[in-house]
Amino acid sequence: MITLMKALILNCTLKPTPESSNTDILCQKAAAEFEKLGVTTTILRPVDYNLLPGVASHMGEGDEWQKILDQILDVEIVVIASPIWVGQLGSVAKRVIERLNAIFHEKELSDPKTGQFLVYNKVAGALVTGNEDGAHYAIMNILWSMEEFGFTIPPNVNAYWVGVAGPGPSYAEAGGDRHLYTNKTYKVMVHNLVYFAELLKEHPIPTDMLKIEEEAKKESDEKSS
């Protein structure tokens, strides 16, 4: 059993608390699986916060992104969950990803000794629900973005449910919580995330990005990136 490990599931539904959310049902199943493995898990809806548009940690008066970022930095496992709208990743998930972009250019979000982004040695996964299509495209956007920011993406760390083509019932109405493939994949996701989170906690990535940048400058025309 894993101990002293924390997970954060960002339910990027468009519906504020306490409105019913199809995505939340799948998030709750994943959270219960994390808890079985001894991982303390929090589900948070970013839509409940005032997240101003931008790519910095602080976007001015009233911006509440820092409240979410602090929780991301405090856990070992982050899962972004999103509904599909118009065949693609929902706008709230896109806003979260945009705000994480601050990692690239804010020094306080990097380790001063190695230059590693502060989300190094954390793992990330994705959950998606929709009533028709776009799951693979949405997952691709989530996981590629998280990898770019420095999260580790273990194998098979996504799960999704979509309905049949055309208008129809969503996850809850269609009994998606009883769908074998979705139930298998969210469990695999949780177990793989926990395993790699524990592995990274015991054996953190040693890459010295500052040293590598200096070496790269010697064989490059540009002196900054």
Q: Average pLDDT across residues?
A: 95
Radius of gyration: 18 Å
CATH architecture: 3-Layer(aba) Sandwich
Distance between the termini: 43 Å
The count of domains is 1
Q: Helix count?
A: 6
SSE pattern, N- to C-terminal? EHEHEEHEHEHH
CATH superfamily: Flavodoxin domain
* CATH class value: Alpha Beta
Helix content range of the residues, please? Answer: 25-40%
Question: Summed up, what is this model?
Answer:
This protein has six helices and six strands. By secondary structure, the protein is of the alpha/beta class. Helix 1 (22-36) crosses helix 5.
Describe this structure in words.
This protein is an alpha/beta fold. It has a single domain, classed as Rossmann fold (3-Layer(aba) Sandwich), CATH 3.40.50. It is 36% helix and 16% strand. Strands 1, 2, 3, 4, 5 and 6 form a six-stranded mixed sheet that branches.
Features:
225 residues; Rossmann fold; six-stranded mixed beta sheet; 6 helices; 6 strands
What is the fold's blueprint, element by element?
Layout: E1 5-11, H1 22-36, E2 39-44, H2 65-73, E3 77-85, E4 88-89, H3 91-100, E5 123-130, H4 135-149, E6 158-162, H5 180-202, H6 209-218
Parallel strand pairs: 1-2, 1-3, 3-5, 5-6
Antiparallel strand pairs: 3-4
Helix pairs in contact: 1-5
